[in-house]
Structures are given as structure tokens and as C-alpha cells.
UniProtKB/TrEMBL annotation:
It comes from Lachnellula hyalina. Residues 30-110 form the Non-haem dioxygenase N-terminal domain. It holds the Pfam family DIOX_N. Gene3D superfamilies: B-lactam Antibiotic, Isopenicillin N Synthase, Chain. This is Non-haem dioxygenase N-terminal domain-containing protein.
Length: 117
């Protein structure tokens, strides 16, 4: 499919999940939140409690029960990896950049432009 980046259709390399590390590193348990319970009675409230707990304890969480297939998830990672593999001058094109000041949160923002507040 043609895009802003290339007028020609592109073939994506399939993203491959990284192998688990063999290095003994400190780690924290990450909450796993199953959103398949969203439409059950009390499901929204229970999920809100789980999310609040995850955000307040570790700040991280993993979501399962989305209904997406492994193929759909892999495709999204493949698209993201293809973009990140592009040369910096292409990613820095104005039409591909996000501009938080203007409320545009979609696009690329170079790590060198990020500020920790």
C-alpha cells in the first residue's frame, strides 16, 4: 500500500519477538489485566480497580483478552519496526512529526527532542 513515506507498496519484514534475556536483572511483577471481562456485570469497575492498582504500584501493566489474533499483533509490531528502521531524515519529515503544542499526538518525535520534566 502506498504511503506518505513511499509511493510504492512495501513488503514488511515480519517482526520477531525478542528472546527472553539470560542476564540476571532486577525486575518487578507487572500486573496482567484481562479486558475480556469488560462487558460482564461489574466488569468495568473491576477493571478500573485493577488498572488503578497497576498504575499506583509498578506503573506498568500488560493487557490480555483483547480479541486480537497473534497475527494481528505481529503485523502491528512489524509496521512499527519498519517505521523505526527508516533513516532519521525520512522520519523527521514535517508531515510525519507529532506536534504536542498543537495537539497533534500522532507521528514521530526524535528522542533528542524529548524532555524529562
Amino acid at each position: 500500500m502506498p504511503s506518505l513515506i513511499s509511493p510504492e507498496p512495501s513488503v514488511l519484514s515480519t517482526w520477531k519477538r525478542p528472546a527472553p534475556t539470560k542476564v540476571d536483572l532486577p525486575w518487578a511483577d507487572i500486573s496482567i489485566i484481562d479486558i475480556s471481562t469488560f462487558d460482564e456485570p461489574g466488569g468495568k469497575e473491576k477493571l478500573a480497580e485493577q488498572l488503578q492498582h497497576a498504575v499506583e504500584t509498578t506503573g506498568f501493566f500488560s493487557i490480555i483478552g483483547t480479541g486480537f489474533t497473534d497475527e494481528e499483533v505481529t503485523r502491528q509490531y512489524s509496521i512499527g519496526q519498519a517505521f523505526m528502521n527508516l533513516p532519521k531524515d525520512i522520519k523527521d519529515k514535517p508531515e510525519l512529526r507529532c506536534d504536542f503544542g498543537k495537539g497533534n499526538y500522532f507521528g514521530y518525535r526524535a528522542a533528542s527532542l524529548k524532555k524529562i520534566i
